[in-house]
Amino acid sequence: MSNHLEARMGDIADTVLMPGDPLRAKYIAETFLDNPVCYNRVRNAFGYTGTYQGHRISVQGTGMGIPSISIYANELINDYGVKKLFRVGTAGGMSPDVQLRDVVLAQGSSTDSAIIQNTFGPGIYYAPISDFGLLDTAYHAAQDLKIPVKVGNILAEDRFYNDEMDRQKLIDYGVVATEMESAALFMLAAKYQVKALSVLTISNHLITGESTKPEEREKSFNDMIKVALEAAIR
Ligand SMILES: O=P(O)(O)O[C@H]1O[C@H](CO)[C@@H](O)[C@H]1O
Ligand SMILES: O=c1cc[nH]c(=O)[nH]1
Q: Which residues of this UniProt protein bind phosphate (predicted)?
């Protein structure tokens, strides 16, 4: 048991998929895992462990934003010994290079969050990056699954509604999409010497204003999940 998880030691696999939406954790567990067992209902942040192609995998809902994912990442790593963390989330497209329903592998995550300054102090602009081994594995797993993926720098921003961000400048500097967690996940993984990657689906596009309908999203969400699961077991 940890501060926010009621799982017992050993209930959580050493590889965890981490969607923001706890109901997506339930969906992933019930759709993709064999014999899923729910180990956490605290705050409705559902967590499940089952097997995928014979490999033990957990899925933990993390809630939205850096403060929330930081709680679950810290506890999964430090209280339960988790070693590989895959965020599986939605993201808003920014660059014209990404379209609705695209799957994006986050190579790095820029951020406007104070976590960088609060960790390193003034003058150091630490760059949170994903684990190269997981990135490489996920990229090749996607190729084998014939699921097209884009790889690039993303933004983890503190505000979902944010009309003060100079998005064009970020796009000009290669940022392809925005979400709200990856910078913290990558930084914590580095701190505790574990591996993390974010596998994202473009659910809407901030520049074109397009958005997917819930029923349209299912297949592309499934693609993201398949890529993460395949990478998780390789
Ligand atoms: O779909 P999830 O994983 O929740 O991720 C994205 O969706 C939420 C905002 O709607 C934020 O958590 C953002 O990062
Ligand atoms: O954080 C997010 C997630 C999905 N779409 C967005 O525009 N922002």
A: 20, 24, 43, 87-90
Tell me if 36 CB under 6 Å of ligand 1.
no
pLDDT greater than 80 at residue 214:
no
Q: Which ligand is nearest to the CA of 181?
A: 1
Long-range own/partner contacts, residues 216-219 (CB < 8 A, 24 or more apart) = 216/101, 217/90, 217/101, 219/101
How far, in Å, is the centroid of ligand 2 from the Cα of 178?
Answer: 6
Q: What is the pLDDT of residues 74-108, one digit of tens each?
A: 999 999 999 999 999 999 999 999 999 999 999 99
> Is the CB of residue 158 below 6 angstroms from any atom belonging to ligand 1?
no
pTM: 0.97
From the CB of 125, is ligand 1 less than 6 Å away? no
pLDDT, tens digit (0-9, with 9 covering 90-100), for 168-192 = 999 999 999 999 999 999 999 999 9
Residue 104 lies in a domain: yes
Q: ipTM more than 0.95?
A: yes
Ligand 2 centroid to Cα of residue 220, in Å, is 15
pLDDT for res 75: 98
Please report whether residue 41 resides in a domain.
yes
Q: Which DSSP helix (H) or strand (E) runs through 188? A: helix 182-191
DSSP 43: G
The count of structural domains within the chain is 1
Ligand 2 atom with minimal separation from the 180 CA: 1
Cα 56 from chain centre: 19
Judged by DSSP in three states, 204 sits in strand
- From CA 115, how far away is CA 187, in angstroms rounded? 9
Instruction: Tell me which of 64, 87, 90 to substitute to probe ligand 2's pocket, judged by most ligand atoms within 8 Å of the beta carbon.
Output: 90
Domain CATH for 103: 3.40.50.1580
Residue 9 covered by a domain: no
